[in-house]
UniProtKB/TrEMBL annotation:
<keyword id="KW-0813">Transport</keyword>
<keyword id="KW-0472">Membrane</keyword>
<dbReference type="InterPro" id="IPR027417">
    <property type="entry name" value="P-loop_NTPase"/>
</dbReference>
<feature type="domain" description="ABC transporter">
    <location>
        <begin position="2"/>
        <end position="246"/>
    </location>
</feature>
<dbReference type="GO" id="GO:0016887">
    <property type="term" value="F:ATP hydrolysis activity"/>
</dbReference>
<dbReference type="GO" id="GO:0005524">
    <property type="term" value="F:ATP binding"/>
</dbReference>
<dbReference type="GO" id="GO:0016020">
    <property type="term" value="C:membrane"/>
</dbReference>
<dbReference type="GO" id="GO:0015416">
    <property type="term" value="F:ABC-type phosphonate transporter activity"/>
</dbReference>
<protein>
    <submittedName>
        <fullName>Phosphonate ABC transporter ATP-binding protein</fullName>
    </submittedName>
</protein>
<keyword id="KW-0547">Nucleotide-binding</keyword>
<dbReference type="InterPro" id="IPR003439">
    <property type="entry name" value="ABC_transporter-like_ATP-bd"/>
</dbReference>
<keyword id="KW-1003">Cell membrane</keyword>
<dbReference type="InterPro" id="IPR050086">
    <property type="entry name" value="MetN_ABC_transporter-like"/>
</dbReference>
<dbReference type="InterPro" id="IPR017871">
    <property type="entry name" value="ABC_transporter-like_CS"/>
</dbReference>
<dbReference type="InterPro" id="IPR012693">
    <property type="entry name" value="ABC_transpr_PhnC"/>
</dbReference>
<dbReference type="InterPro" id="IPR003593">
    <property type="entry name" value="AAA+_ATPase"/>
</dbReference>
<keyword id="KW-0067">ATP-binding</keyword>
Length: 252
């Protein structure tokens, strides 16, 4: 269970990007985080794994007060929480499998990565995770040779090396075309339904949230603007979240 309690984040320049946000996510839920660009989605996701320091409020994850932990505990936290990003963040000139193996770094000796040696058990795990996201055959190509959708699946496989219990996805398909977006989203969906992985995923397109999420949380100007099922978002709610002039466009 993830509990967000009165979370506020104020950037150094004084801008309040998150304003007293509260909600709870039970284990195993697929939550889409929506809202206009600048509404605070990335800020919220980054507070959860302490890439950003919350200004006030609390985040409790599986009983652990994330807002009050030591640096040592932050390392443990980041091992248990996977994260993927809009720009994939791969080392493009390295092989796909090497990129995936770096996801295991919190677990194995740093010396392994320094000498570019990983034990067979780790390599087998990396290959299995690549197979899981449908790109086992690409393991020995350079990451730069893969398409955007494939690169994002490498990033998912890398996050899976941590055996995460929670996956944070920050606009994972915002750089991809519609068809490719589904090829990434369907694997997040698979990990959610087959492994019960809890997913918190920010998305630009509400239609993707409608297809994949159990629940939608919307932010507007850093405040919680909606929390409910995708079906509950009718035209009036849509305009509350995105503004009067907004029109829903599909991604199909
Ligand atoms: N380092 C920073 N210093 C000051 N303001 C910031 C900083 N980073 C982000 N912001 C501002 O905080 C607000 C929320 O940003 P955030 O990236 O969380 O929004 P978002 O909903 O994820 O948007 P996008 O969809 O564009 O990524 C924005 O207005 C942004 O300009």
């Amino acid at each position: 269970m993830l509990i967000i309690e009165n979370l506020t984040h104020v950037y150094e320049n004084g801008f309040k990007a998150l304003d007293n946000v509260s909600f709870e996510v039970p284990d195993g839920q697929f939550v889409a985080l929506i809202g206009l660009s600048g509404s605070g989605k990335s800020t919220l996701l980054r507070c959860i794994n302490r890439l950003l320091e919350p200004t006030s409020g609390r985040i409790i994850w599986n009983g652990l007060d994330v807002t009050a932990i030591s640096d040592e505990e932050i390392r443990y936290l980041r091992r248990r929480i996977g994260m993927i990003f809009q720009q994939f963040n791969l080392v493009k000139r390295s092989k796909v499998i090497t990129n995936v193996l770096t996801g295991r770094l919190g677990y194995t000796s740093p010396l392994y990565s320094f000498i570019n040696y990983f034990p067979k058990s780790e390599r087998d795990k990396a290959l299995a995770n690549l197979q899981r996201v449908g790109i086992g055959s690409q393991a020995y190509k350079r990451a730069s040779e893969l398409s955007g959708g494939q690169q994002q699946r490498v990033a998912i496989a890398r996050a899976l090396m941590q055996d995460p219990e929670l996956m944070l996805a920050d606009e994972p398909v915002a750089s991809l075309d519609p068809a490719t977006s589904h090829s990434v989203m369907k694997y997040l969906d698979l990990l959610n339904t087959e492994d019960g992985l809890t997913i918190l995923c920010s998305l630009h397109f509400l239609s993707l949230a409608r297809t994949y999420a159990d629940r939608v949380i919307a932010l507007k100007d850093g405040q919680l603007a909606f929390d409910g099922t995708p079906e509950e978002i009718d035209n009036a709610r849509f305009k509350e979240i995105y503004g009067e002039d907004a029109v829903e466009v599909g991604i199909s």
